[in-house]
């Protein structure tokens, strides 16, 4: 069985500040991990994914995430927040057998001017 | 290249009525998925098609939900009869086949279903 926990349903940062969105997973098989973003009135867009290659994964829009097996974590970071980063972010996991994604509950990021 | 499209974008129906949602995947994508997000909850998997076959339907909540993918192209998800708890946003996603290493699922904009 797989599960994902996202700590903090709402995160607020100032423009230019570090963004840190937390994701912890549970998986009985080697996981594939994903971060998706949903902007208002749009579908989910893939930010980045981990598929057992490099543990530090770089994505679009300056985001990156580090896979830490010992901590079962895949936190999303961005050094400097921009107003356009305001959106809802979802962490998800899938396994080697079942392709369906298991999502966390989402974190809504607010960026203050 | 067109992305995943879904129709309608919004649907408001009364309890007991029938609603059919449609999803057109990215051309050439054999894998098609349906997910649902009930308000305030996480996005949950409903089912997975490979071409026209149901690969995994473990997430379907009950027999009021019927999904089809005729000819392995577009898919429909019918809810009959609709209940209040069916309200939410229904997402469709598609991916290429053969991507054993976490193939990327591309999502549509979703259909917001409201059952009154």
Unreliable runs of chain A: none
Number of helices of chain B: 0
Encode the helix/strand succession of chain B as letters. Answer: EEEEEEEEEEE
What does the average pLDDT of chain A come to? 92
The largest interface is: A-B, 27 and 29 residues
Shape assignment of chain B: globular
Count of separate DSSP helical elements of chain A: 0
- CA-based gyration radius of chain A: 13 Å
How many strands, what sense, and barrel or not for the largest sheet of chain B?
7 strands, mixed
Query: Averaging pLDDT over every residue of chain B, what do you get?
Result: 92
Largest sheet of chain A: 6 strands, mixed
**SS-derived structural category of chain A:** mainly beta
Count of beta strands of chain A: 12
Structural class of chain B: mainly beta
Care to describe what's here?
Chain A is mainly β and 113 residues long. Chain A is built from no helices and twelve strands. Chain A has strands at 3-5, 10-14, 19-21, 24-26, 32-38, 44-50, 56-58, 64-68, 73-78, 87-94, 102-103, 107-112. Chain B has no helices and eleven strands. In chain B, the strands form two sheets. In chain B, strands 2, 4, 5, 6, 9, 10 and 11 form a seven-stranded mixed beta sheet that branches. Chains A and B meet through strand 5, strand 6, strand 10 and strand 11 of A and strand 4, strand 5, strand 9 and strand 10 of B.
Give a brief rundown of this model:
The complex is a heterodimer of chains A (113) and B (116). Chain A is an all-beta fold and 113 residues long.
How is the topology of this model organized?
The complex is a heterodimer of chains A (113) and B (116).
Chain A: E1 3-5, E2 10-14, E3 19-21, E4 24-26, E5 32-38, E6 44-50, E7 56-58, E8 64-68, E9 73-78, E10 87-94, E11 102-103, E12 107-112
Chain B: E1 5-7, E2 10-13, E3 19-24, E4 31-37, E5 43-50, E6 53-56, E7 65-68, E8 75-79, E9 88-95, E10 106-107, E11 111-115
Parallel strand pairs in B: 2-11
Antiparallel strand pairs in B: 1-3, 3-8, 4-5, 4-9, 5-6, 7-8, 9-10, 9-11
């Amino acid at each position: 069985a797989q599960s994902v926990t996202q700590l903090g349903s709402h995160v607020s940062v100032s423009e230019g500040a570090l963004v840190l969105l937390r994701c912890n997973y549970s998986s009985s098989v080697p996981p594939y991990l994903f971060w998706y973003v949903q902007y208002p009135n749009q579908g989910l867009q893939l930010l980045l994914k981990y598929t057992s290659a490099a543990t530090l994964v770089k994505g679009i829009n300056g985001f990156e995430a580090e896979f830490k097996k010992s901590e079962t974590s895949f936190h999303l970071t961005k050094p400097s927040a921009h107003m356009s980063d305001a959106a809802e972010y979802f962490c998800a996991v899938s396994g080697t057998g079942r392709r369906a994604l298991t999502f966390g509950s989402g974190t809504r990021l607010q960026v203050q001017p | 290249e067109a992305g995943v499209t879904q129709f309608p974008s919004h649907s408001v129906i009364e309890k007991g009525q029938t609603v059919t949602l449609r999803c057109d995947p990215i051309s050439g994508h054999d894998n098609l998925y349906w997910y649902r997000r009930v308000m305030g909850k996480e996005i949950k998997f409903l089912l997975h098609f490979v071409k026209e076959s149901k690969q995994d339907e473990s997430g379907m909540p009950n027999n009021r939900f019927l999904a089809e993918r005729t000819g392995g192209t577009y898919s429909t998800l019918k809810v009959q009869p609709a209940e209040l708890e069916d309200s939410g946003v229904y997402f469709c996603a598609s991916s290429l086949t053969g991507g054993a290493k976490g193939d990327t699922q591309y999502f549509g904009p979703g259909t917001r279903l409201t059952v009154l």
